Structures are given as C-alpha cells and as structure tokens.
C-alpha cells in the first residue's frame, strides 16, 4: 500500500517520462512527483538541435534528424487523452511530435514537476528506510544532491548508448565516420560518396534521403533479400573490412567512400542503477521484469517504454497506468514467485519464437495486442483498440515492400478496422 503522500522519481522527460508524470499526478492526488531531465528541454530525442556530440554541460546529444517523417502512423504517436492533431498527415514530422509533447505538458501543467539539467547519477536501494536513494547532479552548477523516494520509474528511452561495429580497419579509414545519432541533414552530403551501414529503420530512411544529394550511396546490410530504398541506392552485403579510402565487402567487391554512417542501432543503458536495484542488463535485455516493466525483485521500481515494435506513446501511457495502479495501492501486485513464474514463461515462449537477446522486449506479431490486453486486464484499465496494432503491423509490412509507404493515409473506421488511402501526387508547376 502506498504511503499517504507517496514520492515518485521519474527519470527522463521524453515521451515516456511525460505520460508517467501525468498519470502519477492524476492517479495519486497527494503524490509528490519529481521528473529529472538532464537536458534543458522536454522531448528526449524528439527535441531537435543541429548540434551533435556533447551539449554545453558535457552530456551526449541524441536527437532525431531534421527532415524526419515518422515511420509509424500518427494514431499510435499521441496519448489517449491528447491525440496528435487530426489535420496532421498520417506520417508526421519531428516538429509535429514536439509540438504535440509541448501541448501535452501545457495542458496537464507538467513543467512544475520537471527539474531540468539534472542528471541522475546513482539509484540505490536503502534497505533501512525501504526507500530509494537517488543521487542527482545539477549539471549547470556542478552540484550534487541526495533525494529519497518511495517509487522510481525509469523513463530514459532506448536511444542513448549507440552500437558501432568494430570492423577491421576502422582506425585507418581517412574519411568521416559517424553514428546515425549524429546525422542531421541529407544535404550535408552533397556530391559525396556515402556508405550507410545497417538495413533497419534508420538505414532505410537515411540512405534514400542522402541519395537525392550525394554522388553515390551504398547501403550495406545482412538481409538476404534487397530492402526497398529506391533506384538511387546501391545495396551491398556486410562489410568485411575498411580501407584507408573505402570498404571491402564479404562478396569481394570494393568501393571508395568519403563518409560512413553507422545506422546500427542502440542498446538499453541504465548506468545509474546500482547492483542492489535487483535487475540486470545483459544481451540488451533488462530482467527480471513483470510484464516488461515492474522490477520483480524490487517492485517499487518500474521501466516505462522498453518494448518496441509497438504503438509508441499509447503503449507507454498504458504501461504507466498499469504500474501506477499497483504503486498507488489501488491494486495488489502478485507475489514475487508468481511474477517470476510469469517472467520465466514469457522468456521460454520468446526463446521458442526466436525473440531472445536484443529481441527480448520486442512485441512481434500477435504479441503486441496480447500484451496490451493482458496488462489492461490485470490492472483493470482500458486496453488499446485492436485497430491500432493492426495499422501498426500494416505500416511495418508496407515499409518493407515500398520505399514510398508514406504516400498513404490511414484512417480508423471502428475499433477493429481501418482504411488506407493513397495520397494523390502534388501537381508540378509547368
């Protein structure tokens, strides 16, 4: 049972942290909610800046690129109580998303609970008080302060710790090398020869965009079949090694390049959690967690936003409501053994489906709607309508087949059905 005036620590003011703060305030009117955000603004990676590398406080900058249009339908990008503008296209821009988040913050007066330029350095379980000790650095003033909380909700996102493959020759290549976290504008690569490494979402987005300006773009990936990137992008298998002026591929071919962009993803990162927090991070999996969010060993801690291949903001909001139903004492969590049994069963099913390691938090196929329905049923809250997961799945499949998948509008018909309408091309001036 939560204390009369429970205290909640929320780490991060991106999409997951914002909806978690809103739900904590809404579900626990006596609560003290504190959001620690290490940057100067809300939005996480949606807060665009032209800057790369480190910010003025020496912290890593991670944001989306300037001309981004989401590869997910907008109906999954808003919150249940604050959807994205109906007039916006199905595939919205980065400015549409940050406008949405700023409107959400204003509507629910969340700025008052956010402390900016505050880096969470260490979270430790204090067994004598049965609370959490949270060491926070004021990065602008270079001062530290210790805080105590009843509950900790980790909302620091997926996209802070980049993965860069260790190809032989990486240290001798004379051109520019960067990760997609530092990619900003395609026109910066005009007349260049560019190698894009990785056939995932960002590689499939960035390669054709750069190809409109670059002299040559090669997309290297490990997919057995070509991915759909249009005619301007040459596709190659995996890189064997880098040379001083380019790359050699596993098929024996060689190419010369000026720039290499690694669209090779990120790993979950929670360097601020001490070992006594009761979770481990191995093979890009955080465990053991009850329904991918509640810390089974220390069930006053939760992680919001770990699952992927999901209706982004809607899933985060659903997870926040799920966790807070227990944290506020409105429902009782199952015992530790029961939660562990669920986790072990989930891990076994995922292993059988080939969803272990970095795919351990993926909501593949039918797992997506089942996940929404399960946590909603357990917490006795409203689930997400099946039409949302169906639109999401159709969008993902379309992206694999057609580089122009964004030339369609998705419209909801009812709780189960949607229609997909092709957008007529904009007439050109003669």
UniProtKB/TrEMBL annotation:
Domain of life: Eukaryota
Segments traversing the membrane: none
UniProt entry keywords in alphabetical sequence: FAD, Flavoprotein, Monooxygenase, NADP, Oxidoreductase
Matches recorded under InterPro entries: FAD/NAD-bd_sf, Flavin_mOase, Flavin_mOase-like, FMO-like
Cofactor list: FAD
Pfam families, per the entry: FMO-like (PF00743)
E.C. designation(s): 1.-.-.-
A molecular function GO annotation: NADP binding
UniProt cross-references to PANTHER family, sorted A to Z: DIMETHYLANILINE MONOOXYGENASE (PTHR23023)
Family: Belongs to the FMO family.
Name of the protein described by the UniProt record: Flavin-containing monooxygenase
Organism in which the protein naturally occurs: Anopheles coluzzii (African malaria mosquito)
Source lineage: Eukaryota, Metazoa, Ecdysozoa, Arthropoda, Hexapoda
